[in-house]
Amino acid sequence: MSVMLSHPHPPARPLFLGSSSSEEDTKTLNPPDFLLEQAVEAKLQAAIALAGTLQLPCFPALATRYEALIVEFLTLLGQAPSGEERSQLRQQLTETLTQGFEPSPRRYLNLSYQLVNPDQGIAGGIGLKMSLTSPPEAQRSFALANQSRFGCYPDAKAMTLAAGLGEAAEVSVLDIGAGIGRNSLPLAKRGHPVAAVVTNPEAGRQLQEMADSRHLSVTLFGGDFLDHPEVTGDYRLAIAPEVLPHLRSPQAMTEFFRQSRRVLHPAGRLLVGAFLAQPGYSPKTAVRELAQACGCSFLTPSELQEILERVGWRLQSQELVVAYESCHLPAAAWPPSDSFLAWATGEELFPGLVTPPVAFYWLCCVREDNPSKADGA
User: What is the pTM of this model?
Assistant: First the structure.
């Protein structure tokens, strides 16, 4: 799709020869001198070659800011868009950013610009063309967003919680988003009946191979937990350390809690890792979109409470993951990865802030059997 500034706009003032002349000097120029400067100015504008690309993250909430950036750039070149052209630019920016963001928060808008008529240089107008692309190779801002930040050791919180629920053989565990079995395999080794939900087929294959090589029994479910009726059971513990940060809406998070409740024993526990905003912080839409791109989608405390009440959960405990794991993991396992601390403390989303308004928590939930609140559960 393209936006063409098809009607060239004469610069409001000379871009070159007149830039060092004062307004008073211009007024006193003799007509022949003035015409001479106009002619040379036109020649210089026609001699300019222009082509390039601007790559912008596909965040629809920033459409107005991107529009202002593009208009300022064009205006500096003496090609300020007309009102109609600016309206067209705004509409196509909004549509393209939304089209890119919906399937993936890490898509980029590729804005290329070139001369409409090369023979006339910038005086002949500038054309814009928009397309969607994956992140530029040199752009590393979101390179780790889809990767696990947890390293290879099991989570201390998950292991401690499982141990406290009774004899291992009596405490069945559902590991949601199990990856290659960072938690599933140690839990199975301890004697827990373990089932693992794995979205990535290759990760599932690796998990199964490692379980077989160690003579461990792990039941494997492949696919998306939010749409996986085959996952059934009466588990005493369900864990999901890495799922919620990648769910992109409160609706998806609500469905996660609803499905978790469906497969959990009435006296069971649900342990999730979740980014929560600090009380009183009201995030803007652009921040939420950026959080999705960074793999740290978050909820406000009121949003979390509303979801839990609607589905039929009660929050039993809430602890900062960094505080808990740093005290309970072996020294060799802390931090779990090079990027973990910046991610879990919110610094990756808010670089440079001493106390970011978002952080990663362990949430332990129990079922709240109140039919008026357990919406469809």
Answer: 0.86
